[in-house]
Write a structure and sequence with these properties.
Blueprint: H1 2-28, H2 39-45, H3 48-70, H4 73-76, H5 83-94, H6 101-121, H7 132-154, H8 160-198, H9 200-222, H10 225-246, H11 258-276, H12 279-285
Length: 296
């Protein structure tokens, strides 16, 4: 089942990366002056790339749910650090841009670091359904830290610090969303469609996901990608690990195993920083500056 969850997690990361590339490709063909008009959606609906991106988003959600049903949260979510490398590779093909040697080195560092960290931690499955009290503590802690990070970000001018704070808040939001999805899928397994739509976790993960996406967009617009992406990449994985251990009673190896785990995390961080500095990665993630008709 661990192998099955890893495969589905890889498919989810690749699908998310494909969605990013396709939607970015479609948005580049739309006049920027239409960015805040309803006509934008009408135009995008006629673009196969955008429709393909939406299909990839839905596929990613299904793959993530299947991964979380079959595996531990501490295994599935860290694999999503591969989303940006996937986007870089897919974007290079779709946008016909060559991935530089520096880009390939960053991709290898992230993949190797993830492999080392997961192999050393060896997360094991825990309970299928956390207690209500555990959820209360987890949600209060996550929301509290997110609110504190947002408050700090709003007090800072546009730049690295502001972007890093928003990126950290978004990472916590995505980790909490994944934890809620895992519980919601359990409700589907035990109660079917009715149980799924009657479970509070279903609506909670939808709200958390929207909030995380909003925070991510603020992170991208607040400063350079090199500031927000490492916080998002490592933050999501680490918070998911904590939620998996504390909420779902999953187990990871400690003791001297912490040495390769930290080394793996260091490789991921290094790769994420280097990847975020590549122009192609910034093109795929960052929105273009808005332009308006008339004088500038």
């Amino acid at each position: 089942m661990v192998v099955v969850s890893v495969v589905f997690a890889l498919l989810a990361a690749a699908s998310n990366a494909t969605a990013t590339v396709l939607q970015r490709r479609a948005a580049q063909d739309v006049p920027l002056s239409e960015g805040f008009r309803a006509r934008l959606f009408v135009d995008l609906l006629h673009r196969p790339a955008w429709l393909g991106g939406m299909a990839a988003v839905m596929a990613a959600a299904c793959f993530q749910a299947l991964a979380l049903v079959n595996g531990a949260l501490a295994v599935v979510q860290p694999i999503f650090v591969l989303e940006l490398p996937f986007a870089l590779l897919i974007g290079g093909l779709v946008l016909r841009r060559r991935v530089t040697r520096r880009g390939w080195t960053a991709v290898v560092c992230i993949a190797a670091g993830l492999g080392v960290a997961l192999a050393a931690a060896a997360p094991s499955a825990g309970t299928d359904q956390p207690a209500t009290g555990g959820w209360v503590v987890a949600i209060v802690c996550c929301v509290g830290v997110m609110a504190a990070a947002v408050r700090i970000a709003l007090r800072r001018p546009a730049g690295r610090a502001r972007a890093a704070c928003f990126g950290s808040a978004a990472a916590i939001g995505y980790a909490l969303t994944a934890a809620l999805i895992k519980d919601a899928t359990h409700a589907w397994q035990t109660g079917g469609v009715t149980g799924f739509f009657l479970a509070w976790q279903t609506y909670a993960f939808a709200a958390a996901g929207v909030c995380a996406l909003f925070l991510l967009q603020n992170a991208v617009q607040s400063g350079p990608l090199v500031a927000s992406q490492p916080a998002l990449t490592l933050g999501d994985a680490l918070v998911s690990l904590v939620l998996g251990v504390t909420l779902y009673a999953e187990e990871v190896r400690t003791g001297w195993w912490l040495v390769p785990e930290i080394a793996g995390a260091g490789l991921i961080l290094y790769g994420a920083v280097q990847l975020a500095r590549i122009p192609l990665a910034q093109t795929l993630v960052c929105a273009p500056p808005a332009r308006h008709r008339g004088r500038t």
